[in-house]
Amino acid sequence: MDRWELLSLITSMRREIGLTDRDVMVLRAHLTVLPQGPLDPSRLNVSFMGVAEILDRACGMDARRFRRGEARLEEVGLIRRRLSANGRRFPERDRSGRIVNAYGIDLAPIFEKHAELLRLKDSLDAERLALRSRKNSLSARLQSLLRHLTASAQALPDWADALRQTLRNVLRRSTTRMEDLDQIETQLQQLEADTETPVDSFESVVPCSPPCPSKRYETVVSPDRKPADAGQSVRHIESEPKDIKNTQHLRFDKKRIARLWAETKSIQALYPEIPQTERSLANTLFQFSSFIGLRHDSVTHSLSSLGWNGMIPVLDYLSENITGIAHPDRYLLTMIKSFQAGHPIANGSVVPKRLERLSARNPVPV
Q: Residue ranges under compositional bias (Basic and acidic residues) (predicted)?
């Protein structure tokens, strides 16, 4: 079993499970302690590294917070704390030096709950798909109704604009529930009845069925091909990742990324494997930034100014100094403003292009 796929599964459902980003960071730190390679659920999977040592693998997290994270992981049933009488963590070996038992954090419960976690993820995915389909259906019905009223020169009811604004707010909220959509649909049905618009005049939107939880599949679509697409096809139901800015400094250079990765401390400790694609690099950096308290939009804004080559050392610098930073987002914004003003940041590891060119033209004599 791949530990990173397991961690990714838990990370994607952390809110539903009841975990915070810091709790996930604690779990990740313990997973890095286990032997390299695929994990075998039938073997001993105990993290027995001392807290003082393992804190370095959790971005220097405070020991009390780290232990609280362990307690929370045990509460939700993902780990089991097996400490010695004096609270120490250590392995027990036989005469040949082979580890036969250990005191520490037992990760066996994760493997026991793996099938349950997969079923939960399938259920959540189905609920999200049904919710999204319902949102699309209500939005299409309202827009079709408003177009019909406009075309027939009928006056809009007083509460039509209020309903449109309410629906817009509901569609944008990430915490929207089916009950919220039920209320919207009731109001929409009343509006349709008041306007006496025949049902068949609306654009029909058929909600797509949720996927079967026991099967994961992709729908094959055969789009029209044009000469300009060179036989390539893209499924329109999948949103393409948004380009932050198509600028020169966002070019993905694997060799450059590898060198920068090797120079990091916290990032390399948590992610020993260097991302090989631009998408995997983005996913890794956004996930890492959430561990140190940065918002997604703050990282996106910073990335548009720094590029990949600047963002990696900046995030590592913030992680190394996070204990002395009260507001990470504000601190990062200040760094970006300083960089845009032409000053080096992150202890001089990220230098504006203008200073690099000046340094190249006027090298310091030896």
A: 217-228
Q: Is 199 left (phi over 0), alpha (psi -120 to 50) or beta?
A: alpha
Percentage of residues in the chain with pLDDT exceeding 90? 26
* 344 φ/ψ sector (left φ>0, alpha ψ -120 to 50, else beta): beta
What contacts 163, CB < 8 A, 6 or more positions away? 142, 184, 187, 188, 191
CATH number of 3-112: 1.10.10
User: Is the pLDDT assigned to residue 154 strictly greater than 70?
Assistant: no
| Phi, psi dihedrals of residue 190, rounded to the nearest 5° | -65, -40
Looking at residue 91, what DSSP letter applies?
A: E
Confidence of residue 155 (pLDDT cuts 50, 70, 90): low
**pLDDT tens-digit readout, 281-305:** 988 898 888 778 888 888 888 888 8
Rounded CA separation 326/323 (Å): 8
Please list the alpha-helical segments (H only) found in the chain: 3-12, 14-17, 21-33, 51-54, 63-75, 108-112, 114-151, 160-172, 178-195, 254-263, 266-270, 278-291, 296-320, 328-340, 353-361
Tens digit of pLDDT for each residue in 292-344? 888 888 888 888 889 889 999 999 999 888 877 888 888 999 999 999 888 89
Nearest CA to 14 among 80, 72, 82? 72
Tokens matching residue 308? 């990949």
Other C-beta atoms closer than 10 Å to the C-beta of 65 total 15
Q: How far apart are CA 198 and CA 221, in angstroms?
A: 33
The SS3 call for residue 94 is coil
Which amino acid belongs to residue 350?
Answer: V
Q: Half-sphere exposure (CA, 13 Å, Cβ side) for 349?
A: 17
- Quote the CA–CA distance of 366 and 356 in Å, as a whole number: 18
Distance (Å, whole) CA 364 – CA 362: 6
CB 303 within 8 A of CB 314: no
